[in-house]
Q: What sequence folds into this?
């Protein structure tokens, strides 16, 4: 026969009663605060709350600058059968909406990489998940040379797989991570990545499959670790696809890129008549220039004719030059001739 189970009851805790003697000692609580504060930092009395048997908490407003929402508290206690209360403690406590400092964090968690400068010294961490034990010399010259020189393991600690993964994720999500490529020149894309750039120097180890160092002084990533999918306008093959190769000199290649469209228009009747009249005038002018110009001499008057005849007769009667011994010049024997026409 099963016995009925009864649920265990929680013990009742009696709510403490407000002690009348301690609650009435408001001035005693204020004097306790005045002794530990500066003048003007304690405000008016807000309330009195029971904190236990014969324990009362008096709450005062805090008027200190910068402590909005904070309150002063004074705890008074009364011994059994005592007629006066005594001060137990004083404190400054925040209330709802009070301005609080951020939650405390350890120094190792609070410090960020951006807070550390080149001359700052960090403490040594014995256990660092980003590092692992390096190669220890064995004494064999050939093996030690391969491990220390060629593989770069001649250090006490080297990068662990977790450290490599963290570095790769940080560099991939950084400023020089992979970018989208497009041969159409869309905004925010590149035509070529660092994997095909001649200025890329690959890292050593397994990180060389995804990262390298840029050595182009004209690139914004000069001296930075870049992802092989990153790209910029300073690529070693910049503009090769857009630029036309120049033809070799002396090859006899002529590229004519100038084109003109000619439209023939028939002349109107008025323009055709004007052109014909201009052609006739030019033809008549050329014919007149080829013919000789004849200028008629002025006609002689009757008096001039008689005078000329008399001079001719006198010339016939005169002796020939040299017959009478008188010298005669050829100029006296000449006579003027009259021209009837003159050709020009």
A:
């Amino acid at each position: 026969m099963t016995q009925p189970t009864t649920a265990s009851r929680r013990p009742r805790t009696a709510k403490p009663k407000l002690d009348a003697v301690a609650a009435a000692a408001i001035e005693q609580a204020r004097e306790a605060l005045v002794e530990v504060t500066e003048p003007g930092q304690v405000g008016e009395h807000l309330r009195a709350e029971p904190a236990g048997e014969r324990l009362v908490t008096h709450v005062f407003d805090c008027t200190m600058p910068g402590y909005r929402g904070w309150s002063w508290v004074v705890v008074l206690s009364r011994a059994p059968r005592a007629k006066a209360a005594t001060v137990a403690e004083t404190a400054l406590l925040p209330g709802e909406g009070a301005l609080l400092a951020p939650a405390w964090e350890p120094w190792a968690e609070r410090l960020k990489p951006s807070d550390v400068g080149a001359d700052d010294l960090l403490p040594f961490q014995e256990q660092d998940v980003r590092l692992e034990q390096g190669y220890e010399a064995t004494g064999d010259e050939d093996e030690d040379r391969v491990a220390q020189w060629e593989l770069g393991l001649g250090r006490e600690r080297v990068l662990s797989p977790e450290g490599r993964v963290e570095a790769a994720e940080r560099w991939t999500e950084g400023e020089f991570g992979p970018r989208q490529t497009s041969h159409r020149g869309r905004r925010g894309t590149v035509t070529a990545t660092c994997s095909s750039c001649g200025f890329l120097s690959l890292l050593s180890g397994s990180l060389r499959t995804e990262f390298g160092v840029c050595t182009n002084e004209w690139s914004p990533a000069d001296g930075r670790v870049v992802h092989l999918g990153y790209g910029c306008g300073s690529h070693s093959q910049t503009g090769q696809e857009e630029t036309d190769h120049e033809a070799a000199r002396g090859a006899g290649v002529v590229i004519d890129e100038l084109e003109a469209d000619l439209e023939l228009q028939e002349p109107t009747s008025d323009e055709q008549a004007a052109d014909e009249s201009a052609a006739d005038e030019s033809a008549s002018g050329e014919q007149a220039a080829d013919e000789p110009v004849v200028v008629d001499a002025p006609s002689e008057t009757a008096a001039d004719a008689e005078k000329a005849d008399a001079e001719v007769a006198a010339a016939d009667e005169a002796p020939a030059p040299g017959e009478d011994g008188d010298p005669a010049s050829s100029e006296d024997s000449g006579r003027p001739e009259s021209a009837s026409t003159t050709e020009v």
User: Anything to note?
Assistant: Confidence is low (pLDDT under 50) at residues 293-297, 322-344. The chain is about 25% helix and 15% strand. The two ends are 171 Å apart (CA to CA). The domain at 20-94 is CATH 3.10.450 (Nuclear Transport Factor 2; Chain: A,).
